[in-house]
Amino acid sequence: MSFDVVAVRADFPILSREVNGKPLVYLDSGASAQKPNCVIDAINTAYSQEYANVHRGLHYLSSVATEKYEGVRATVAKFLGAQDGNTIVLNSGTTEGINMVAYAWAMNVMTEGDEIILSVMEHHANIVPWHFLRTRMGVKLVWVDTDANGDLDPQKMLDAITPRTKLIAVTHLSNVLGTVVDVKTICHGARERGVATLIDGSQAAVHMPVNVEDIGCDFYPITGHKLYGPSGSGAIYVRPERMAEMRPFMGGGDMIREVHKTEVIYNDAPMKFEAGTPGIVETIGFGVALEYMMGLGMDNIAAHERTLRDYARNKLEGLNWLNVQGTSADKAAIFSFTLEGAAHAHDISTVLDKKGVAVRAGQHCTGPLMDHLGQTATCRASFAMYNTKEDVDALVEALELCHRLFA
After folding, report:
1. Choosing from 38, 187, 217, 365, which is the catalytic residue?
2. Is the domain of 154 the same as that of 235?
3. Judgement on whether residues 174 and 269 belong to the same structural domain of the protein
4. Residue 272 to residue 234: CA distance in whole angstroms
5. pTM above threshold 0.85
6. Which of 263, 280, 295 is the last residue in one of the domains?
7. What range does the domain containing 339 cover?
8. Is 38 a catalytic residue?
9. What total of structural domains would you count in the chain?
10. Is position 182 within any domain?
11. Of 12, 32, 113, 314, which sits 20 to 30 A from 332 (CA to CA)?
12. What are 44-53's contacts with CB under 8 Å, separation 24+?
């Protein structure tokens, strides 16, 4: 099946609007992607025709809602190449997933002096939970830098392992540099050394096919709003052996089987890690978004985005006054940049917005990486499956205006 970007764009109603009198060129999908009609319709139907609480009712609406909600578990497993839906914990997104690993797994198996290896590229969501353990338990954080191109050498991650290392937590794809990390080599090498691995899949899962069985990771969180689904939705794959090592960290709702004055009997995994009433409608919409992507074909999406990446890279390299951070040969269509001179990233973003081009400006929740790059802030253009070469041209035209204004 070929990839028809015109047909895909027609599925996203917001892409037909104007901003500041210009056609919208949305290049901020790395922060949050737009939503197709099928997701919007599924959310509307769930609220207007099928809403009820899940798991707790025998009536018709509850049964319908429960069936659709629970069906997402199998959809996520298929999307991630997991063999069993019971390895999938549904949640509000990657941040909750990583915090679950910190509280439910790491606090249960780690002690003072144990080590967690991180790359300097990590998003704050894959840093702050480990700082919690550092300050509260005396866990040590070990950092591995990227090279001048923004590549992360997997052997350097493995060389950082010591007898006290318990976990490697690393992004699959940098949200700033676009770098694709060789997580398979890291995970297989870590497993040989008895070290667990958490791979932050927030960015990678939207741009390429993912198979957690092949990667060999222990934990793989994803977030729905970056995958063309609703905000407040997501999931995490947990290898069964690690699931057995986890203890519940939130209490209430469906994570219990029985509650008495003197004891609590927990539900089976993965339910015992899903406390309270979940984001029912958000999760249903998340499942529809994943089905939509799989229907288009992840290989087709990846091929289209590689074409965009190469076209954008060539165009941006022609702007000799533009500084692009991250020049890895193996990267996604994500470009962070600054302009030579005094122009701040926020000023650049504001000018681009006047031309209808939406980009991100700031530190992108990557303080350590910004320090490593020697930058206080950058602009980021992050492309998605609904973007076109014309969007690249619009970005370049707007950047040329910036250069004329700030040179």
Report:
1. 365
2. yes
3. yes
4. 17
5. yes
6. 295
7. 5-30+298-406
8. no
9. 2
10. yes
11. 12
12. 46/280, 46/281, 46/284, 46/285, 47/281, 51/280, 51/281, 53/277, 53/280
